[in-house]
What does this fold into?
Amino acid sequence: MDDVVIIGAGQAGGQAALSLRQLGFDGKITLIGDERYVPYERPPLSKSFLAGDVPEERMFMRPAEMYDEKNIAWLKSTTVVRVDRQTKQVHLAEGQPLPYGKLVFATGGRVRKMTCPGADLPGIHYLRNIDDVHGFRARLTSGLKLVIVGGGFIGLEVAAVAVKRGCEVTLLEALPLILNRVTAPEMSAFYTDVHRSAGVDIRTSTTVSAFEGAGKVERVITNHGPIDADLVIVGIGIIPNVELAEAAGLAIDNGIVVDECARTADPDIFAAGDCTNHFNVAVGERRRLESVPNALGQGKAVALAIMGKPEPVTEVPWFWSDQYDLKLQMTGLPKPGDQTVIRGSITDRKFSISYIREGVFVACQSVNMAKDFLQSKKLIAARHKPDLAKLADSDISLKDI
Ligand SMILES: Cc1cc2nc3c(=O)[nH]c(=O)nc-3n(C[C@H](O)[C@H](O)[C@H](O)COP(=O)(O)OP(=O)(O)OC[C@H]3O[C@@H](n4cnc5c(N)ncnc54)[C@H](O)[C@@H]3O)c2cc1C
It folds into this structure.
């Protein structure tokens, strides 16, 4: 069997390696990661791990020994710098090139950085890795003036943890609404209220033009004036790591272009996770997704494709976010202009928003309504056209609509 080399030891790469063994692959598997950890779950980085509720070893997908047991060669702290498709070799930052029979890109993404004056001052942090958390977690203590840049999920989750630890939190969002790209205005308004009542100072339509300070960040300069800061955490999105694949001549379009079975146009090269732009069967269009279910689903798809049994990923995209006592669960991919139907009670913090496009149920976002989350997946997969009056009645379960 062809040797498999996997670039990137995140959840997509880890899953591809484990699934290959589960499917009976008996060739050599090399999993190369530039971090010093075996594949781990990133979601707790802005939630339970940041809060200090979960120890580091509980973050790992599988214990390190398991990779030995499964005969998966894991190269830690190792960076791939070039892929040569002619000689079928990957070149490392140090050491001999590695030959491959089949190659998997699971290179994920890296944080988008601020570029304004002062952006390099000490005290400005980002959040993608375990080591990023180690870089600032101990400082999140009572009275710390924390400024968070970005009102997406990561910024809001960090705000929830930090305010609970007694920090004075100011969160800046450039757009008029937080969570603007991903939810309906009602959901944005709900989370704005929740955070404000917890003590987070949310400032929307606020853009950062500079950071200032003597030797470390002390102030954030915005279009509405300066804000004092002891620490800044930036969460303004990621950039997919596609440069290696691009230099190797693979098609790139906001991600490495793959089909619904995680295959590139090169029959020996596959890609999975945040770095891919894939045809998503469940939503019927090309997307690049940043979610654990997608990374795991495509990781499995890669293994199936390598084993000669390609199967499309058909799962409806889903995501979650934990803030305070609120569990937000999301299925499908809403778009601006979708009609929305609210079920349950926003004031009781138990409700869901369904998204309807041309009469079809396309997405659902539920707060503390796990049943709607689970049942909505089936409606989305079936491209169901619901009766809107019934949909608005939370006494009727989604499965009975
Ligand atoms: C703070 C935070 C909270 C999140 N919360 C949620 C959540 O609640 N729910 C959810 O579904 N998703 C969440 N996500 C997103 C989710 O974690 C990602 O979608 C998922 O980790 C993607 O996995 P991946 O394997 O594709 O990429 P990554 O996890 O980015 O892994 C890629 C790995 O490849 C390495 N690499 C890249 N290039 C090279 C190279 N040239 N050589 C060697 N190694 C390389 C990278 O350093 C990295 O270790 C969160 C992410 C973060 C950061």
The longest strand covers residues 350-357. The pocket of flavin-adenine dinucleotide is lined by residues 7-13, 32-35, 42-43, 45-46, 79-80, 106-109, 127-128, 154, 241, 244, 273-274, 290-292, 295, 319-321 (CB under 6 Å). The domain at 124-234 is CATH 3.50.50.60 (FAD/NAD(P)-binding domain). The mean pLDDT is 97.
